[in-house]
Write a structure and sequence with these properties.
228 residues, Endonuclease III, domain 1, mainly alpha, 50% helix, 13 helices, 2 domains
């Protein structure tokens, strides 16, 4: 980890290389000069985090990650006894589904997590592959789609071009802030972001600072599946 400290801190990323002519994005970039994409090189850890966030609210994903660390992670070294290490892949792969149910993970996400944990060595070797090759390999895993890949590679590879296609809010937020319209599609979002390549993910992060798109209904309510 010490050897990768500079890449983790984002020092390999050069936000100054990003140039655009869109007035909103240009101003946001000027206001946030220190924002960088860090590259952890930890593909499995980033993939687990992304899988827990599939099709659930942020609070549900947080509860699931907390459960995984509690069940499969050892106490971290040092004085903070409440800190846990990342979940151990061998224990994850060997555990039956019903253990995951008590960790706020339904069978679909649990089966994907068990499968990737069983292939942890192959997945972690993707850290040395170009982001495009790593994306193809991850997409070949059943239960891993474009949204999960984008979430993973933005962290593990520090890829500033990853776009979370399929996200519930992102397409509306991007279309709203770049066009003024309240709703949009993934196709519209990708078309609007195309001129910013290879910094599309950087642009979506900047647009997040402006807030969500207008709300037209109740938000998705979190569910506690451990009570089912």
């Amino acid at each position: 980890m010490l050897e990768r400290l500079e890449s983790i801190a984002g020092l390999e990323d050069d936000p100054g290389a990003f140039r655009c002519e869109h007035p909103i994005v240009t101003e946001l970039h000027r206001r946030n000069p220190g924002w960088r994409f860090g590259r952890t090189g930890l593909v499995f850890d980033a993939l687990v985090q992304a899988i827990t966030g599939q099709k659930v609210t942020g609070s549900e994903a947080t509860a699931a990650m907390r459960g995984l660390r509690r069940q499969f992670g050892d106490p971290a070294p040092g004085p903070r006894v409440e800190l846990r290490l990342p979940p151990d892949p061998q224990r994850m792969a060997e555990s039956p589904y019903w253990v995951y149910h008590g960790l706020h993970l339904e069978k679909r996400r649990a089966d994907v997590l068990r499968a990737v944990a069983a292939s942890v060595e192959r997945i972690d070797r993707l850290a040395d592959a170009p982001s495009s090759d790593a994306a193809k390999a991850l997409l070949a895993i059943p239960g891993v789609g474009p949204w999960t890949v984008a979430k993973t590679l933005a962290v593990s590879h520090g890829d500033a071009d990853q776009v979370e296609v399929g996200d519930f809010h992102l397409k509306h937020m991007v279309v709203h802030h770049l066009t003024g319209r309240s709703r949009g599609s993934d196709e519209e979002m990708l078309e609007l972001l195309e001129p910013f390549r290879p910094h599309r993910g950087r642009v979506t992060r900047l647009l997040h600072t402006l807030g969500h798109e207008p709300s037209f209904g109740p938000r998705l309510a979190p569910k506690d599946i451990t009570r089912i």
